Amino acid sequence: MSNLPQYKKDFLKSAIDGNILKFGSFLLKSGRTSPYFFNAGDFYRADLLNSIATAYALTIDSLPVEYDIIFGPAYKGIPLATAATIKLGQINPDKYSKIEYSFDRKEAKDHGEGGNIVGAPLRGKKVLIVDDVITAGTAKREAIAKIEKEGGIVAGIVVALDRMEKLPAKDGDDSKPGPSALGELKKEYNLPIFAILTLDDIIEGIKGLVGEEDIKRTEEYREKYKATD
């Protein structure tokens, strides 16, 4: 029996039922072959979007950080931050009815209101970044730079999934221990980073939901590529 909190169980079941969390054989950009694949961009149906919004909102509500604005980096982060903001206002109107959100443009607009940011102004505000995953960390570094350029203070990052996976070794030897992209980002910026689900959560929560062979292969992948952080 899984000991995961109910909102994690609900989110995991929704991701599997909606074919957002898939099991099989998937070639990653790193060149590794993963036994599972998660794509937050597939939460495009109303019931699925409600599921991920609820999971983000309940995760954010439990965080030990203060923030004024929820920020979604373009492009996948935009609907995630928007949906999470709406859901926060619904689950606790007294606390979150005035919470604000923003997102960035990939290219600055030179007419109308102009600028790189759409939504709440960031200057002097504590900003919580919401996105799907941290793969290499490049997109999050860009988001942090944009927020700081606008005068905002990054309070933390929340992602849907922490793969807990070490970065590929520069010399190609993946037998060596190593940190994850999430761990490196946390260390580089001294930022708190949180996830709705970790790979450990997935392995604990999928028992009874997927086949034994998929569970075994996912456990073996974790053992082979688990990060040191």
Automatic annotation (TrEMBL):
Signal peptide: none
Assembly and interaction partners: Homodimer.
EC number: 2.4.2.10
Recorded family membership: Belongs to the purine/pyrimidine phosphoribosyltransferase family. PyrE subfamily.
Phosphoribosyltransferase domain: residues covered: 55-174
Catalytic reaction equation(s): orotidine 5'-phosphate + diphosphate = orotate + 5-phospho-alpha-D-ribose 1-diphosphate
Keyword Glycosyltransferase: yes
Record function comment: Catalyzes the transfer of a ribosyl phosphate group from 5-phosphoribose 1-diphosphate to orotate, leading to the formation of orotidine monophosphate (OMP).
Species: Triangularia setosa
Protein name: Orotate phosphoribosyltransferase
Gene Ontology annotations of biological process type: 'de novo' pyrimidine nucleobase biosynthetic process; pyrimidine nucleotide biosynthetic process; pyrimidine ribonucleoside biosynthetic process
